[in-house]
Amino acid sequence: MKTKLTAGLLTTTLIVLGVAACGGNGGGGQGASAKPKVGLITKTETNPFFVKMKEGAEQAAEANGLELMSAAGKFDGDNASQITAIENMVAAGVKGLLITPSDTKAIVPAIKKARDAGVLVIALDTPTEPQDATDALFATDNFKAGELIGQYAKAAMAGKPAKIATLDLAPGITVGQLRHDGFLKGFGIQSGDPAVVCSQDTRGDQAKGQTAMENCLQKAPGINLVYTINEPAALGAYTALKAKGREKDVLIVSVDGGCTGTKAVQAGQIAATSQQYPLKMAEDGVKAVATFAQSGQKASGYTDTGVTLITDKAVTGVEAKDTAFGLANCWG
């Protein structure tokens, strides 16, 4: 963010709403800059995943002659701030909005108002409910991401009976449910299977992941496999396991493939992770808004931005890349 929006557009419910005047021109409004505007609204501004997404949006906005406005919630699940951001950006005249919805159902009415006002709305990473509430979706196949680590875990367990803890996201967020369900399918079990001995929500937070793992170990000390929604939750789980001297005999699998998470795979803290590409999501989304601004052509449907299993301990029958590849491509 390089300049502030005019005060009339800023409310106290919005943690951050700023304008990056690509190419160094002007600020908010139609004054010094005649560039079409594109908005990016992420779940938080601190999660490295969304930091990388914003980086991709900034690069693509500059390359495509757009002015970027960005906003984020105070925490994962902060629907109110995202609604305010949509309203402010529409009022500022954006041609398109890119959003990672915190509440995939509750955000839909605000998105409808934006689309009714002629704004192209694209979901990044997380589909709305229903998915067609946005014009388009640029995202990882989150079910496949979960399925890959489930298949890996099944093969890595080598027939050993599993006692599984699932460290999930939070109710009402499609990305969390898709990854969870994909993991179960990949492992070859269904919801309610007795192999899952503990399930806790973490909101993808490392401290909450540690607490969740501590709770699960109290409930079921014999846990030997941990599925986590993302790598911060995985590292929290690892910390809890290490405190109990269990870090060597519990398999942890995760999703994200960020640079920190990939290094954790390299260090043996996480066995495998499904790498996704948030920078590409944002770049593709901004390009779609640029096309709409220039020609009126709207992006539509779902675009899969790719997923790759990353591990240094490959198993038969599950395609994977090693951490050298993962570090070269982390969140690119």
Written description of the protein model:
By secondary structure, the chain is an alpha/beta fold. It folds into two domains: 3-140 and 277-299, Rossmann fold, CATH 3.40.50; 142-275 and 309-329, Response regulator (Rossmann fold), CATH 3.40.50. It is 39% helix and 20% strand. The chain has ten helices and 14 strands. The protein has helices at 48-63, 79-92, 108-116, 142-157, 174-187, 206-219, 231-243, 259-266, 278-295, 323-329; strands spanning 3-4, 16-20, 37-42, 67-72, 94-99, 120-124, 136-139, 164-168, 196-201, 225-228, 251-256, 272-275, 301-304, 308-310. Strands 1-2-4-3-5-6-7-13 form an eight-stranded mixed sheet, sandwiched between helices. Strands 9-8-10-11-12-14 form a six-stranded mixed sheet, sandwiched between helices. Helix 1 (48-63) runs parallel beside helix 9, helix 6 (206-219) crosses helix 7 and helix 8 (259-266) packs antiparallel against helix 10 (323-329). The longest helix has 18 residues, at 278-295. The protein is elongated. The two termini are 21 Å apart. Belongs to the bacterial solute-binding protein 2 family.
